[in-house]
Specification:
alpha+beta; single chain; two-stranded antiparallel ribbon; five-stranded mixed β-sheet; Fumarate Reductase Iron-sulfur Protein, Chain B, domain 2; Ubiquitin-like (UB roll); binds FE2/S2 (inorganic) cluster; binds iron/sulfur cluster
C-alpha cells in the first residue's frame, strides 16, 4: 500500500516539512514505517535527508513513548496501521509538549506530574491482611484505566491546564482513580482523595472532556473523572 507522508521536521536548520512515499502492507504499523524510513531517509523528490527523529520503546502499546500527531490528532505510532493512514497522512510532534527534534518531544512533565501527585501504591510496612478483594465493578473500572500508557496526550490537550491554573491534569485524575479502585490502593484512598479535593484537584477540571476525545487508548475519561469527583463529594458529606 502506498502512502504519502508529510512529516514536520525541526532541527538546528529550522522548521520544514519533508515528504516521503512509503510502501508497506496495510497491517504494518506506523512505527514499522518510521523505523524503515530511519534506515533509508529518501524524500519523494529523491533527496537523502537526515533520519526523522522519533521515540519508541515497547512497540506495545504500553509505554506511550511513540505518541505523535497524525493528521492533527494524538496517536501512538505502534498502534496505527498503514491501512488506517490511507493514501496520505501528516505527521507531527505530540501537541502540548516542547519539541526536542522532529517527532520527539520532552514528555518529562508527565512523569513529574505523576510523582508530584503521589500516583503510586505505598506498600512499605504493609503486610496485606486489610486489603479487601476486588468487586467486579472495581475490576472492570481498573481494567479500562490500566490501558493508559501515560503518553501524555490528554495532558497536552487539556484546556484547563496552563501556567495560570493549578490543575494537575486528566492523567493524574485518571491515575488516582485507577489506584483507588485497586484493593491495595484503597488503603491510601484518604491521601489521594485529600489531594483530589485540594487546589489543582478535580474541581479545577473544566469538563471540556478533550481528554476523552484525544486519548489514543480510548480510556473512558469522562467516567473516570466523574467517578473521582463523586468520590470527593462523598468524602465531604
Ligand atoms: S489517559 Fe489516554 S491520553 Fe491520557 S496519558 Fe493515558 S493513554 Fe495517554
Ligand atoms: S512504543 Fe510503547 S506505546 Fe508505542
Amino acid at each position: 500500500m502506498t502512502t504519502n507522508l508529510a512529516i514536520h521536521r525541526r532541527d538546528r536548520a529550522g522548521e520544514r516539512v519533508d515528504r516521503f512515499v512509503v510502501n508497506h502492507p496495510p497491517d504494518r504499523t506506523l512505527l514499522d514505517v518510521l523505523r524503515a524510513l530511519a534506515a533509508a531517509p529518501v524524500t519523494s523528490d529523491g533527496r537523502t535527508v537526515a533520519p526523522v527523529v522519533f521515540e519508541d520503546a515497547c512497540a506495545g502499546p504500553l509505554c506511550g513513548s511513540c505518541a505523535l500527531s497524525v493528521d492533527g490528532w494524538p496517536a501512538m505510532a505502534c498502534r496505527v496501521r498503514v491501512g488506517d493512514l490511507g493514501s496520505q497522512a501528516v505527521l507531527g510532534p505530540l501537541p502540548g509538549f516542547p519539541v526536542v527534534a522532529d517527532l520527539l518531544v520532552d514528555r518529562g512533565a508527565v512523569g513529574r506530574a505523576l510523582v508530584d501527585a503521589r500516583a503510586w501504591l505505598e506498600l512499605d510496612g504493609w503486610a496485606g491482611p486489610e486489603a479487601s478483594p476486588w468487586s467486579a465493578q472495581a475490576a472492570q473500572h481498573a481494567q479500562s484505566a490500566h490501558a493508559c500508557t501515560a503518553c501524555g496526550a490528554c495532558q497536552g490537550a487539556c484546556p484547563a491546564m496552563g501556567s495560570r491554573s493549578p490543575y494537575r491534569g486528566p492523567l493524574v485524575m485518571a491515575a488516582w482513580e485507577l489506584l483507588d479502585s485497586t484493593p491495595t490502593g484503597r488503603l491510601q484512598t484518604g491521601v489521594r482523595r485529600a489531594l483530589a479535593a485540594s487546589d489543582g484537584g478535580i474541581a479545577d477540571c473544566g469538563h471540556a472532556r478533550v481528554c476523552r476525545d484525544v486519548c489514543p487508548q480510548r480510556l473512558p475519561m469522562g467516567e473516570l473523572l466523574g467517578s473521582l469527583s463523586a468520590g470527593v463529594m462523598r468524602g465531604r458529606e
